[in-house]
Known about the structure:
alpha/beta; Rossmann fold; 3 domains; 4-stranded antiparallel β-sheet; 14 strands; 12% strand
Amino acid sequence: MHPVLAGFLAALAVGPLVLPEFYVTLLNYIGLYSIVALGLVLLTGVGGLTSFGQAAFVGVGAYTTAFLTTTPAAELPAWLAVFGSSPWVALAVGLVLTAAIALVLGFLTLRLSGHYLPLGTIAWGISLYFLFGNVGFLGGHTGISGIPVLEVFGTELRESRHFYYLIWLVLLGAVWLTRNLLDSREGRAIRALKGGTVMAEAMGVDTARSKTVIFLIAALFACVSGWLYAHLQRFVNPTPFGLHIGIEYLFMAVIGGAANVWGALVGAGVITILKQWLQDVLPTIFGASGNFEVIVFGLLMILVLHRAREGLWPLLTRLVPTRERARSVPAAAPLPRGVQAGNGDLLLEVTDAVKKFGGLVANDRMGLSVRAGEIMALIGPNGAGKSTMFNLISGVSPPTSGSVRFRGEEIAGLTSREIARRGMSRTFQHVRLLPTMTVLENVAIGAHLRGRRGVAAASLHLERSEEAQLLAEAARQIEHVGLAEHMFDQAGSLALGKQRIVEIARALASDPCLLLLDEPAAGLRYLEKQALAGLLRKLRGEGMGILLVEHDMDFVMGLADRVVVMEFGKKIAEGLPEHVQNDPAVVEAYLGGVD
């Protein structure tokens, strides 16, 4: 354990024994807010999904326990009366109710993108807030009082000092579960969301499921915080669950460091203490009461967002010496491999493929084939339709008509994830790596489909054996492509040529028999192109089928076994490189030079 963490935990343990009641109460609220902010770190900071409505989920947890524990069993519906008045049973009911609401809201809002997603969270956040205040059995705007005291192992938690330990044990447990989750196959899938849906799906990640998982976890964390709040206060009304509090929770996550688990605690602590201090100091400065702290607070937040866009936690870590993370990969048994194709076997066959965008025909009755152990190049000038063809094959968009068969199976209309599962993997024209993750972690994303353990096992660290196998496979592919010395470097620190090689390693980690490369030589210098060509020859020699989409004829002609040339969506030539290079139609298509 790091000495700073040990000191922090020791201070937490002795805090209530030496601090005045006011500061213990303040720490209680920091703990409650941190639980909600931790869910937003996972949802917004890691997953890239902005939510302004988390306060509503806090309200669901608070109102569920308030209603069930204060209403006599005789007045409850029969199906609710069986739950009795136990706060712990009310917690279970609240979690189930929150999960149900989150699944419905997630289904409706997580399909939105861009600014529509946060607007959607604002809409349901406002709706739930007014629901709390206008439903009669929830006490209206007056609220519910008389919530019973929590009892733990026969001890009633009547004092803030006693409640303090429960709040912080729950928070530290949530931190442990979240860190475990992020340090796993499922965690990499969640982090891959920031790389874009197309990339994540191509690596086998079910992005809709991953988004739902983090949305659900964030909602459940908020529910637990609300349950604790209700029994700490022993009274609830709608005020703490409004949209303005939801915005405050999001501020806590962002100010603390939205991509860092410990940032949730920093953000909650800074904002809670700062607000309290401003409320005490500003009235004495201005000589009048009012909400002056809101004005100053807002200006300070803007300043922090300008000066520390990654939050305060990264700044704090620079001041504290940290132990270097282990730079080794655990030994593990190799992952099982799929059925391999024999050299020369037909892998991909595209016949009469047509893709229309309205009245535009991007691909017009295109056809090509790729066999195991060969490099097929699809070339043509910009706008020829190569990328559209590439997307038809890889499942990004379905063909309007025609056939795409992979290893004898029709795959037209299948998703990228389903195609990846069958043994096809790809890279991207514009590099899509996660720059702050190590090369090892980026490549391990490619092996996602080769793992099976889920979120629960990851959170409890019960998938260590499988995780070791996935990391060992990623390390093997990194060594395979010649980047072993960069295994633990951040992917964003590498030169473009090496980043493209990392993408190839990531694709290889999925155990494909067909590799699709989308303009891998774009932007590379001469020596980088030579290194890339050497790697592709090596893979071809190992029996890999490669479909290479390029417009750099010089790069392709010394590398490909066969070439298909496109212009205006149609195939104008096909054959050996030397024959295609001298074809009059090809020469005319490339007249004026290659970009």
